[in-house]
Amino acid sequence: MAQHITVKEYDPAWRELYEREKALIADILQENLVAVYHIGSTSVPALAAKPVIDIMVAVKSLDAADGAAEKFAEAGYEYLGEFGIAGRRYLRKGGDERTHQIHIFRADDTHNLERHLAFRDYLRTHEDAREEYAKLKKALAEKFPYDIDGYCEGKDAFVRRVEALVLACYDGSRNRL
């Protein structure tokens, strides 16, 4: 069965769900771990979102992350490798009705790390963009309730526009919460 795309109003419990997974990830990756970040729409207070906790992880070694695939599987994650983005490791939990996604990058992959953080930080501080994005996501979820590709493609122009805007002036502060 295809994933059912729903967009819900912001839920403060998403922060706690992230914190639990952050501890689990730290336990699995141990000394390979550099940083863990809550990204995606569930990391932006007041933003409607698919209730999927997006987590970005910076590691010293992707090979060592690959070596932890079995531990991630024991924690309920599917370890899907690059899954369309070179230099990333993608994991998901919850099957078609996924609850969590992890995006692992090498700590020196500043392009991918910073674009996610810059986008998140911009939405946290710009209400007009946050509202525009929420409206777009709700419309796309209604139009593509079982078509994740259509939903994602519908968001692409907005995401690219905002990413380009914020990366032009992003100061690299990776530890914002």
Automatic annotation (TrEMBL):
Superkingdom of the source species: Bacteria
**InterPro entries per the UniProt record, alphabetical:** GrpB/CoaE, NT_sf
User: Known Pfam families for this protein?
Assistant: GrpB (PF04229)
The leader peptide range reads none
What is the official name of this protein in its record?
Answer: GrpB family protein
Task: Provide the species name.
Answer: Candidatus Caccalectryoclostridium excrementigallinarum
The record lists the lineage as: Bacteria, Bacillati, Bacillota, Clostridia, Christensenellales
